[in-house]
Write a structure and sequence with these properties.
The structure holds 2 protein chains of 2 kinds. By secondary structure, chain A is an alpha/beta fold. In chain A, 33% of the residues lie in helices and 22% in strands. Chain A has helices at 14-24, 60-78, 147-157, 174-183, 197-202, 204-207, 211-226, 284-289, 323-341, 352-371, 396-404, 411-418, 431-438, 455-464, and strands at 6-10, 29-33, 82-85, 88-95, 102-108, 115-120, 122-125, 129-131, 144-146, 164-170, 187-193, 231-233, 235-242, 246-253, 266-269, 272-277, 279-281, 293-294, 297-298, 311-313, 387-389, 394-395. Chain B has a 5-stranded mixed beta sheet with strand order 2-1-7-5-6, with helices on one face. A 3-stranded mixed beta sheet of chain B has the order 4-3-8, with no helix packed on it.
Chain lengths: 471, 118
């Protein structure tokens, strides 16, 4: 180990920034490696400087936190304690067995044709999450976007996909997306949420532990009312209509079993459908390193350590829970990493407030997870000719045949028989849908590379590392 | 050439911070205004265009889906280079953006197509 230990933080969202600031403030040389062209991640995504605007509808307390993180990053960078590598898309983190150190491999810039490497004594994974979208007839039409995607395009580029939007699916993300689209000038024809008020009431004891979060939700609800947005709870989008682009959606009320209630269907004209069914953690880098997962998230201990020595994880990658939880986890991870890198056992009392926030926010996230579940009968509403794997254009009928006729019982076998999950996105968009249709559990993807890598980058790597090339 | 997939009313557009940061790009030969810092997808959305790729199998139109570089649905050909993610790639003055049919390699710029097969 060098005299001043080094830490590579992958991801510059709330968790990565909090971790980088905590570690850099305690004498660790931090390299912050991030795919974005500016720090902030998806949550604090900022518009390009040339676009004369501020992010729409940023609540005041979030603005303060972002300013603290941004200014802290600026100070540490100026002092040489943090190197921020923007536009670096990490595709693999390798642990050198002999030394216990790490090499972070990335692709540079949007073209992603050149590689770059960072070496560090330890690594902290703050890779965030991405949206889960379950398939339904018409979901591949242009104009149908993920709720998070609509928000990202609005935050980063101030761009809207159309004039009249329907926001649909389930989860706490739908409220801010509907609010932001309405504030940006779109007509939001309806917010369609499959969960019902009864489910929220059942979880009330856990939810009231976070009055700030409830107030945030209530604030969105008030703004939606002000924009005249109609909210349909216990409803779902059963079909998106159009030929070359979205023209309308059909929504139905859900019955007690989570199935569309006959006779309740109504058609809503729109040119945009922003849809989402919750979030999934990015775990590829952790999986390749050999970290154990718990369900679909990276398992960590009280210090945010994974079970691989020298690897910490924080934020959505360890379980989806929102930005406030990511900040708390990142702070703890950064402090733990700093202490351990200097050969000390950290004293958890030093981060007690963050630990308390983490406990509360994890309980809150668990309660939300129980409320915002996709309707039980969603898979039955997917017609055989509905494309499920968007990349390879595999439809639901092929998946059902693989299961019912050919006997596939897990995601991997379905993939081998149908190609569902073999395309550009490597199953990130379809795995949840395929698992639901096949009636098998959603398991982690086990992708050795976290993104497509040009062969030239791999070849150059073998040369620079002095490893034997092809024999 | 495929008909432009236009929408009657264009979505609201951001104002430029400085007028000298506005420039022009083309989409399938049609001139579109762009702002420094915008992604290709944002420029197309602002012009009412929501599809710029046809799938390899059924030839169905696609555009932005995930918006954060994960899904690869928004692949597009920019200056002869196919399979660029429109939601990530920033526009540059004079960019020639084209609808991408199939794998995108059929009408890629010859030197790029050649380099890929070396």
């Amino acid at each position: 180990m060098s005299e001043q230990p080094s830490l590579a933080v992958v991801g510059a969202g709330p968790a990565g920034l909090a971790a980088a600031l905590a570690a850099a403030g305690r004498g660790v040389r931090v390299t912050l490696v991030d795919a974005g062209d500016r720090a902030g991640g998806q949550f604090y995504r900022q518009p390009a400087p040339a676009l004369a605007a501020r992010p729409p509808q940023a609540p005041h307390h979030q603005g303060r936190t972002w300013k603290r993180l941004r200014d802290g990053l600026g100070r540490h960078r100026a002092a040489g304690r943090i190197v921020h590598l923007a536009d670096h898309h990490v595709w693999c983190v390798a642990r050198e067995e002999a030394t216990g150190t790490f090499t972070v491999h990335s692709l540079l810039g949007p073209a992603q044709e050149e590689g770059g490497t960072v070496r560090a004594d330890a690594v902290l994974l703050a890779t965030g999450g991405y949206e889960r979208v379950l398939p339904f007839p018409g979901w591949t039409l242009p104009g149908v976007v993920t709720a998070g995607g609509a928000q990202a395009m609005l935050k980063g580029a101030l761009a809207l996909p159309g004039r009249t939007a329907v926001i649909a699916g389930t989860g706490p993300l739908l409220l801010p997306v509907a609010t932001a689209l309405a504030a940006a000038g779109a007509r939001v024809a309806a917010l369609v949420e499959s969960a019902g008020p009864a489910a929220l009431l059942r979880r009330a004891p856990a939810l009231v532990t976070q009055p700030g979060k409830l107030a945030e939700g209530a604030g969105y609800a008030v703004r939606l009312l002000r924009h005249g947005v109609r909210t349909l709870t216990r409803h779902t989008v059963v079909e998106a209509h159009g030929t070359d682009r979205l023209e309308a959606v059909t929504v139905s009320a859900l019955d007690r079993d989570g199935r569309p209630r006959p006779g309740s269907a109504r058609r809503i004209p729109c040119d945009t459908l922003a849809v989402g069914h919750g979030m999934l953690p990015h775990t590829d880098l952790a999986e390749t390193l050999g970290c154990t997962l718990a369900g679909t998230a990276v398992r960590v201990d009280d210090e945010q350590r994974t079970d691989v020595p020298g690897v910490w994880a924080a934020g959505e990658t360890t379980g989806v829970g929102g930005a406030a939880l990511a900040l708390a986890e990142g702070h703890i991870a950064g402090r733990s990493a700093a202490a351990r890198l200097y050969g000390r056992a950290p004293d958890p009392r030093h981060w007690a407030p963050a630990a308390r926030a983490r406990t509360r926010l994890r309980a809150f996230a668990t309660a939300l997870d129980a409320v915002y579940v996709p309707p039980a009968g969603w898979a039955d509403a997917v017609t055989d000719d509905t494309v499920v794997c968007r990349c390879e254009e595999v439809d639901a009928g092929e998946v059902r045949e693989a299961v019912d006729v050919l006997g596939a019982g897990d995601l991997r076998t379905v993939k081998l028989l149908t190609r569902a999950g073999m395309g550009w996105c490597q199953g990130r968009m379809c795995a949840a849908g395929v698992a639901g249709l096949a009636g098998c559990p959603l398991t982690a993807g086990r992708r050795p590379f976290a993104r497509p890598v040009p062969l030239g980058v791999l070849a150059a790597l073998a040369g620079t590392e002095g490893e034997p090339g092809t024999e | 050439m495929r008909p432009l997939r236009r929408h009657s009313a264009h979505p609201p557009q951001p104002a430029p911070a400085r007028p000298d940061e506005t420039f022009t790009v083309t989409f399938d030969g049609r001139r579109l205004p762009a702002l420094s810092g915008q992604t290709v997808a944002a420029v197309l959305w602002a012009a009412g265009v929501t599809a710029w790729r046809d799938t390899r199998g059924a030839g169905r139109p696609r555009g932005v889906f995930c918006g954060i570089g994960v899904c690869f649905d928004c692949l597009v050909t920019v200056d002869g280079r196919p399979n660029q993610r429109a939601c990530l790639v920033p526009v540059r003055p004079g960019d020639a953006i084209r609808t991408q049919p199939g794998t995108g390699w059929a009408d890629a710029r010859p030197q790029d197509a050649g380099a890929d097969h070396e």
